[in-house]
Amino acid sequence: MAIRPTRYFPFGDSALVVEIGDVIDLEVNAKVLALDQAITQSKIFGIQECVPTYRSLLIRYNPLKTTYEELVFQIRNLEGSIQEVTVEERETKEIVVPVVYGGKYGPDLKYVAEIHGLTEEEVVRIHSAKRYRVYMIGFIAGFPYLGVVDDEIATPRLKTPRIRVPEGAVGIAEKQTGIYPREAPGGWRIIGRTPMKLFNPSRHPPSLLKPGDIVKFKPITEREFRALKAKQ
Amino acid sequence: MKLFHVLKPGAFTIVQDLGRYGYLRYGVPVSGAMDTFSHVTANLLVANHPNDATLEITLLGPELESLAETEIAITGANLSPKINKTNAPMWRTVRIKKGDILSFGTPQNGCRAYLAVRGGINVPEVLGSRSTYTRGGFGGINGRPLRAGDTIYGFNKTESLSVKLEMPRELVPEYPKEYVVRVILGPQAESFTKEGIETFFSSVYTITTESDRMGYRLDGPSIEHVDKADIVSDAILPGAVQVPESGKPIIMMRDAQTTGGYTKIAVVTTPDLSLLAQAKPGNTIKFVKTSLAEARSHLIEFHRKLNTIKTKFLKKP
After folding, report:
1. Which CATH superfamily is domain B178-303 in?
2. Mean pLDDT across chain A, nearest whole number?
3. Which residues in chain B show pLDDT less than 70?
4. A182 vs B contacts (CB less than 8 Å)
5. Which uninterrupted H or E stretch holds B274?
6. A46 vs chain B: nearest CA distance in angstroms?
């Protein structure tokens, strides 16, 4: 059972963590998001913002207006009312992300294929066949943690991270897949690249994706990639 | 209104306000001035709002030519500020004229100075803040530190201050070489052995050169985990003390990433994190355990002090 009794921890003097579980699990994440929504709607006095993750919710509060104990009491009350919420009840959207796989766009595709005894085409087919859930946004602004990747293509991170992973790179790390919204250092196995812009600080909200959304990858050719990129 | 022409940018000079809140869920760090106390005080000394943008100046300061007649205040680290090559006073209102050259010399103590200008620095707000987030490339001046040739703009303020303000000497902080930092245990204190927690609180850690606005990497005795150092990623805020497999702690600072997969042994209190902005590589840190209740009273005290500075103690020199 992935869901255990909820645990509360202080996070410094101005935040607390509501821990639903300690694993990557659909049910755990769905409860995190349901609690996030319930707290946002409840407008509990003193709460400033919530940060949903795979398995917990961080709550930033104003300690001059409320206390840790007061908030734990109020959130425990709320928690009871959301036990039955399912994933489908949340407002989610499905986004198709075009990806050019392999070659210079996906330098690790060959490796991923080789260690699993597959062809590159098979890896692409498996990676793009699944509908992935956005479990959380983190690491760098707009970076979606997507899951879960089939065991057939799940691959550990690079031993030594690359100094530069380009904007739009699509990678695999164990059973997670993700997209780099901006050039950054990183250790994920890069299998392709999307021309899609995932993060734009002058847009509201700045991130194209939010936790709970569904992502489906669509293989495209290099030519289509360049055409889509030119359109931006 | 043009305020300054940047002759030399300094080592790392950036525009900061109190930070970018409300976007952590999209992976956007809070950013903001590392030393909240000095940033707010600098603003108060020129009768600004505490959230107005200042320049955060790290160790080697810039050289700026004034393009307007205005009032400035410099607080935080003493980086030997000068106006037209003459030592400029800190922690008080200073009038400058068009053509004056503001420069900095040898760092005397601390790490980060704050330069506030009457009316605040005028850069576009990005996601509700003027703070520069260099790794994300947004906020401040095009998401980057100052460059030679930049023009820094302000807001038109016709009325100048009728009085000069000065911080009373007893309220000017001192920056030690050895920092004592209060922390609240958790959220993953359970991931460490009893011995590990003891090591954390009984050892002296040194700030390494791998330290910046994202985090301070510390060197010192390794902190023992019960089992493993990795967790399924959860949220991070500035102040979190991560302990990766090496056992050497990393204090996350204002530009910290929003999520991470290392165990967090404790979180530094807000007032002490502000003071840590002045710690440099080579300085040492000793962690002290504090309770939620104690931390809350310290925080109330911190805000009360700033409020007192605002309402009572800012007096004519």
Report:
1. Cyclophilin-like (2.40.100.10)
2. 93
3. 157-158, 313-317
4. 136-137
5. helix B270-276
6. 14
